[in-house]
Protein backbone atom coordinates (compact mmCIF):
# COMPACT_ATOMS: atom_id res chain seq x y z
CA UNK A 1 0.00 0.00 0.00
CA UNK A 2 1.75 3.16 -1.20
CA UNK A 3 -0.35 5.45 1.00
CA UNK A 4 0.95 3.86 4.21
CA UNK A 5 4.60 3.69 5.24
CA UNK A 6 5.62 1.64 8.28
CA UNK A 7 8.74 2.51 10.29
CA UNK A 8 9.93 -0.16 12.71
CA UNK A 9 13.07 -1.03 14.63
CA UNK A 10 14.67 -4.49 14.36
CA UNK A 11 12.64 -6.14 17.14
CA UNK A 12 9.37 -4.60 16.02
CA UNK A 13 10.03 -5.53 12.41
CA UNK A 14 10.76 -9.13 13.38
CA UNK A 15 7.51 -9.24 15.34
CA UNK A 16 5.55 -7.81 12.40
CA UNK A 17 7.09 -10.29 9.98
CA UNK A 18 6.18 -13.21 12.23
CA UNK A 19 2.81 -12.13 13.61
CA UNK A 20 1.64 -9.09 11.69
CA UNK A 21 0.25 -6.10 13.57
CA UNK A 22 -2.50 -7.03 15.99
CA UNK A 23 -4.67 -4.67 18.07
CA UNK A 24 -3.29 -6.27 21.23
CA UNK A 25 0.24 -5.12 20.25
CA UNK A 26 -0.63 -1.45 20.70
CA UNK A 27 0.20 0.26 23.98
CA UNK A 28 0.67 3.89 22.92
CA UNK A 29 -0.82 6.00 20.13
CA UNK A 30 0.73 9.46 19.53
CA UNK A 31 -1.14 12.31 17.88
CA UNK A 32 1.16 14.97 16.46
CA UNK A 33 0.50 18.67 16.09
CA UNK A 34 -0.11 19.97 12.60
CA UNK A 35 -3.38 21.87 12.41
CA UNK A 36 -5.57 20.85 9.45
CA UNK A 37 -3.07 18.15 8.47
CA UNK A 38 -4.59 16.11 11.29
CA UNK A 39 -7.86 15.95 9.37
CA UNK A 40 -6.20 13.76 6.73
CA UNK A 41 -6.07 11.02 9.37
CA UNK A 42 -9.82 11.12 9.97
CA UNK A 43 -10.66 7.91 8.06
CA UNK A 44 -7.76 6.11 9.74
CA UNK A 45 -8.85 7.36 13.17
CA UNK A 46 -12.39 6.11 12.59
CA UNK A 47 -11.11 2.69 11.55
CA UNK A 48 -8.54 2.32 14.35
CA UNK A 49 -10.76 3.47 17.22
CA UNK A 50 -14.08 2.36 15.79
CA UNK A 51 -13.28 -1.11 14.45
CA UNK A 52 -9.72 -2.30 14.90
CA UNK A 53 -8.60 -1.39 18.44
CA UNK A 54 -11.88 -2.50 20.10
CA UNK A 55 -10.88 -6.06 19.18
CA UNK A 56 -8.37 -5.91 22.07
CA UNK A 57 -8.71 -5.21 25.79
CA UNK A 58 -5.36 -3.84 27.03
CA UNK A 59 -4.95 -0.26 28.35
CA UNK A 60 -3.70 2.19 25.72
CA UNK A 61 -2.01 5.54 26.30
CA UNK A 62 -3.10 8.32 23.93
CA UNK A 63 -0.56 11.15 23.68
CA UNK A 64 -1.40 14.28 21.73
CA UNK A 65 -0.45 17.88 21.08
CA UNK A 66 -2.58 20.52 19.34
CA UNK A 67 -4.88 18.85 16.78
CA UNK A 68 -3.36 15.55 17.93
CA UNK A 69 -4.62 16.19 21.47
CA UNK A 70 -8.06 17.06 20.09
CA UNK A 71 -8.07 13.80 18.10
CA UNK A 72 -6.93 11.66 21.02
CA UNK A 73 -9.49 13.23 23.37
CA UNK A 74 -12.17 12.55 20.76
CA UNK A 75 -11.12 8.91 20.65
CA UNK A 76 -12.09 8.66 24.32
CA UNK A 77 -15.69 9.68 23.67
CA UNK A 78 -18.47 7.14 23.40
CA UNK A 79 -19.30 6.34 19.76
CA UNK A 80 -15.91 7.61 18.65
CA UNK A 81 -16.72 7.19 14.95
CA UNK A 82 -19.53 9.75 15.15
CA UNK A 83 -17.33 11.95 17.34
CA UNK A 84 -14.52 11.94 14.76
CA UNK A 85 -16.98 12.82 12.00
CA UNK A 86 -18.19 15.77 14.06
CA UNK A 87 -14.60 16.80 14.80
CA UNK A 88 -13.85 17.06 11.10
CA UNK A 89 -17.04 19.01 10.44
CA UNK A 90 -16.56 21.42 13.35
CA UNK A 91 -12.89 22.03 12.56
CA UNK A 92 -13.59 22.83 8.92
CA UNK A 93 -16.53 25.08 9.74
CA UNK A 94 -14.81 27.23 12.36
CA UNK A 95 -15.68 30.87 11.79
CA UNK A 96 -14.11 34.02 13.20
CA UNK A 97 -15.37 37.58 12.85
CA UNK A 98 -13.20 40.31 11.35
CA UNK A 99 -13.18 43.67 13.15
CA UNK A 100 -14.07 46.61 10.86
CA UNK A 101 -11.06 47.62 8.78
CA UNK A 102 -8.96 44.65 9.91
CA UNK A 103 -7.55 41.86 7.74
CA UNK A 104 -7.57 39.21 10.44
CA UNK A 105 -9.42 38.58 13.71
CA UNK A 106 -7.80 39.50 17.00
CA UNK A 107 -6.11 36.86 19.14
CA UNK A 108 -8.57 37.60 21.93
CA UNK A 109 -11.53 36.91 19.64
CA UNK A 110 -9.99 33.74 18.19
CA UNK A 111 -9.22 32.48 21.69
CA UNK A 112 -12.71 33.20 22.97
CA UNK A 113 -14.42 31.59 19.96
CA UNK A 114 -12.09 28.58 20.04
CA UNK A 115 -12.88 28.05 23.72
CA UNK A 116 -16.59 28.21 22.92
CA UNK A 117 -16.11 25.61 20.19
CA UNK A 118 -14.32 23.27 22.59
CA UNK A 119 -17.08 23.71 25.14
CA UNK A 120 -19.73 22.97 22.52
CA UNK A 121 -17.85 19.84 21.46
CA UNK A 122 -16.90 18.39 24.86
CA UNK A 123 -19.41 20.11 27.13
CA UNK A 124 -21.11 17.55 29.36
CA UNK A 125 -18.84 14.78 28.05
CA UNK A 126 -15.52 15.41 29.77
CA UNK A 127 -16.14 12.54 32.18
CA UNK A 128 -16.28 10.19 29.19
CA UNK A 129 -12.75 11.25 28.32
CA UNK A 130 -11.33 11.12 31.84
CA UNK A 131 -12.98 7.85 32.84
CA UNK A 132 -12.54 5.80 29.70
CA UNK A 133 -12.13 2.17 30.78
CA UNK A 134 -9.08 1.59 28.55
CA UNK A 135 -7.62 4.84 27.26
CA UNK A 136 -5.32 7.11 29.28
CA UNK A 137 -5.11 10.56 27.72
CA UNK A 138 -1.98 12.74 27.90
CA UNK A 139 -2.31 16.32 26.59
CA UNK A 140 1.09 17.86 25.83
CA UNK A 141 1.53 21.61 26.28
CA UNK A 142 4.47 24.00 26.59
CA UNK A 143 4.97 26.68 29.23
CA UNK A 144 7.23 29.54 28.27
CA UNK A 145 10.03 30.56 30.63
CA UNK A 146 11.96 33.81 30.98
CA UNK A 147 11.57 35.72 27.68
CA UNK A 148 8.75 33.41 26.64
CA UNK A 149 6.83 33.74 29.89
CA UNK A 150 4.68 36.56 28.48
CA UNK A 151 3.71 37.24 24.88
CA UNK A 152 5.54 40.26 23.50
CA UNK A 153 5.92 41.57 19.96
CA UNK A 154 9.73 41.50 20.05
CA UNK A 155 10.68 39.27 22.97
CA UNK A 156 8.53 36.32 21.86
CA UNK A 157 10.08 35.89 18.38
CA UNK A 158 13.56 36.35 19.85
CA UNK A 159 12.74 33.84 22.57
CA UNK A 160 11.63 31.20 20.09
CA UNK A 161 14.73 31.87 18.01
CA UNK A 162 16.82 31.30 21.12
CA UNK A 163 14.91 28.10 21.88
CA UNK A 164 15.44 26.86 18.32
CA UNK A 165 19.17 27.55 18.36
CA UNK A 166 19.57 26.08 21.84
CA UNK A 167 17.75 22.92 20.80
CA UNK A 168 20.09 22.42 17.84
CA UNK A 169 23.11 22.60 20.14
CA UNK A 170 21.95 20.78 23.27
CA UNK A 171 18.46 19.37 23.67
CA UNK A 172 18.43 19.45 27.47
CA UNK A 173 19.19 23.18 27.48
CA UNK A 174 15.83 23.77 25.78
CA UNK A 175 14.40 23.62 29.29
CA UNK A 176 15.80 27.10 29.88
CA UNK A 177 13.21 28.41 27.41
CA UNK A 178 10.30 26.00 27.56
CA UNK A 179 8.86 23.52 30.02
CA UNK A 180 6.89 20.56 28.74
CA UNK A 181 3.70 20.28 30.80
CA UNK A 182 1.71 17.08 30.32
CA UNK A 183 -1.86 16.87 31.58
CA UNK A 184 -2.62 13.19 32.20
CA UNK A 185 -5.94 11.54 32.92
CA UNK A 186 -6.31 9.53 36.13
CA UNK A 187 -4.86 6.05 36.27
CA UNK A 188 -7.15 3.14 37.05
CA UNK A 189 -4.57 1.96 39.57
CA UNK A 190 -2.56 4.84 40.94
CA UNK A 191 1.22 4.59 41.06
CA UNK A 192 3.73 7.14 42.20
CA UNK A 193 5.74 8.43 45.08
CA UNK A 194 3.39 11.11 46.34
CA UNK A 195 -0.23 12.18 46.27
CA UNK A 196 0.35 14.63 43.41
CA UNK A 197 1.44 11.87 41.04
CA UNK A 198 -0.53 9.03 42.58
CA UNK A 199 -3.66 9.68 40.52
CA UNK A 200 -1.91 10.41 37.20
CA UNK A 201 -1.51 7.74 34.57
CA UNK A 202 2.20 7.06 34.12
CA UNK A 203 3.77 8.85 31.18
CA UNK A 204 4.46 6.40 28.34
CA UNK A 205 7.54 8.26 27.11
CA UNK A 206 10.88 9.36 28.52
CA UNK A 207 11.17 12.91 29.87
CA UNK A 208 14.91 13.17 30.44
CA UNK A 209 15.45 15.23 27.28
CA UNK A 210 14.37 18.53 28.88
CA UNK A 211 12.35 20.04 31.71
CA UNK A 212 8.98 18.27 32.08
CA UNK A 213 6.12 18.47 34.55
CA UNK A 214 3.04 16.25 34.83
CA UNK A 215 -0.34 17.54 36.00
CA UNK A 216 -3.48 15.57 36.76
CA UNK A 217 -6.09 16.14 34.06
CA UNK A 218 -9.53 16.75 35.53
CA UNK A 219 -12.85 18.36 34.65
CA UNK A 220 -11.63 21.74 35.88
CA UNK A 221 -8.54 22.00 33.67
CA UNK A 222 -9.52 19.86 30.67
CA UNK A 223 -10.71 22.73 28.44
CA UNK A 224 -7.83 25.11 29.30
CA UNK A 225 -5.28 22.32 28.84
CA UNK A 226 -6.64 21.38 25.43
CA UNK A 227 -6.75 25.01 24.32
CA UNK A 228 -3.21 25.55 25.61
CA UNK A 229 -2.03 22.58 23.56
CA UNK A 230 -3.60 24.15 20.47
CA UNK A 231 -2.26 27.65 21.14
CA UNK A 232 -0.37 29.63 18.50
CA UNK A 233 1.69 32.73 19.40
CA UNK A 234 -0.13 35.96 18.50
CA UNK A 235 -3.10 33.99 17.12
CA UNK A 236 -4.60 31.65 19.74
CA UNK A 237 -3.96 32.21 23.44
How many helices does DSSP assign? 9
- Number of domains as seen in the coordinates: 1
- The topology string of helices and strands comes to HEHEHHHHEHEHEH
Structural class: alpha/beta
Strand content: 5-15%
* Physical arrangement of strands within the biggest beta sheet: 1-2-3-4-5
Q: Write down the overall geometry.
A: globular
- Major sheet description: 5 strands, mixed
What Rg is obtained from the alpha carbons, in whole angstroms? 19 Å
Q: Which regions contain 5 or more consecutive residues with pLDDT less than 50?
A: 189-197
Helix content: 25-40%
Mean pLDDT: 87
Number of strands: 5
Distance between the termini: 40 Å
Write the layout of secondary structure elements.
Elements (H helix, E strand, L loop, with lengths): L9 H10 L8 E4 L10 H11 L7 E5 L2 H9 L4 H13 L14 H16 L3 H5 L4 E10 L10 H15 L8 E7 L10 H4 L13 E5 L5 H9 L7
Parallel strand pairs: 1-2, 2-3, 4-5
Antiparallel strand pairs: 3-4
Helix pairs in contact: 2-4, 3-4, 5-9
Descriptors:
237 residues, alpha/beta, 5-stranded mixed sheet, 9 helices, 5 strands
Amino acid sequence: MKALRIHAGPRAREHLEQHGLQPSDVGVIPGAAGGPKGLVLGPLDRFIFGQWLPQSTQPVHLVGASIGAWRMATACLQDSVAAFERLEHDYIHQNYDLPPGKKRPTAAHVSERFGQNLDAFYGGRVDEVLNHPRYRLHIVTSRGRHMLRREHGLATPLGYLGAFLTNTVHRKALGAWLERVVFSSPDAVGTGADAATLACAALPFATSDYRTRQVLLDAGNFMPALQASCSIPFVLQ
